[in-house]
Amino acid sequence: MNHPDSAELAFNFDGLTPDFMWYALESIGIRTESGLLALNSYENRVYQFVDEDKKRYVVKFYRPQRWSQEQILEEHQFTQELLEQDIPVAPPCVINGSTLHHYQGYLFALFDSVGGRQFEVDNLDQLEWVGRFMGRIHQVGQSKPFTHRPSMGLEEYLYQPRQILQQSSFIPSYLENSFFSDLDSLIGQIEQHWFTPSSQIRLHGDCHPGNILWRDGPMFVDLDDARNGPAVQDLWMLLSGERQDQLMQLDIILEAYSEYCEFDHNQLKLIEPLRGLRMVHYMAWLAKRWHDPAFPIAFPWFNDAKYWENQVLSFKEQLSALQQPALTLTPQW
Question: Which of 31, 59, 212, 223 is the most exposed place for a label (fewest CB within 10 A)?
Fold first, then answer.
């Protein structure tokens, strides 16, 4: 997470009116007939619509100052590589020789609209399919690293978020001491458990169940957080339930995954540190984006004292999880 500069803090999406989007799409030869239905996206702005030929599309307008043009194009290129290997992803459309387009200060991309049901995290057959495709995704991802996109690490996911939270005004004064004391204890524990694997590969980066649609099989969407990192980052968010449930799920995922890509079982030690990183990063992301009018509407509980009281409890729970033995499986040879 980068610190917001004055331009980013001053930015909002108010100028992204239906007329503006209509002209932006027309600039690449797409005429909107109906729709511009806002989809569930907060970091960027994403809309579904139907063009004059009755074809359904999705357009994504990228948040300025978040990714550079080179970083966005690297994501697009990765998606295209996956598609070329018959991996079910939703690639941006190539129009006039490019997947990334400019209009009056905005960068945007066009996608074919793909539907699907929700991926069922407790469906073991579906989990096996996802594990197999994750192995194929990582087989492509390990062929070369991103050069413009960042790599996962404590600076972006822990230290900078801690500073953002310290500088914010969200934590109630009566909670500040306990909140930051427990946060610093969590940071210390994560530091003790953290290591950088010898193999850092290109990742989906945010492979939670909501980014997997189900059609005749899994469809992986929204690679906006793609970056270099440990393979386990794309796997741990697929686990749920008690420890025994997670071990069973992990066994199913990795057996299927290993058909296409070797997995370093030592990375399982990073599951709880990564969970802690996501927890802290998420809080700081909401604090950083609060100036965007969409965020107070979508996340009203974030500015409530009860939320922050619960976070102190979550820190304690995560500290306890970090002190437990890591999930382990016997590697399949």
Answer: 31
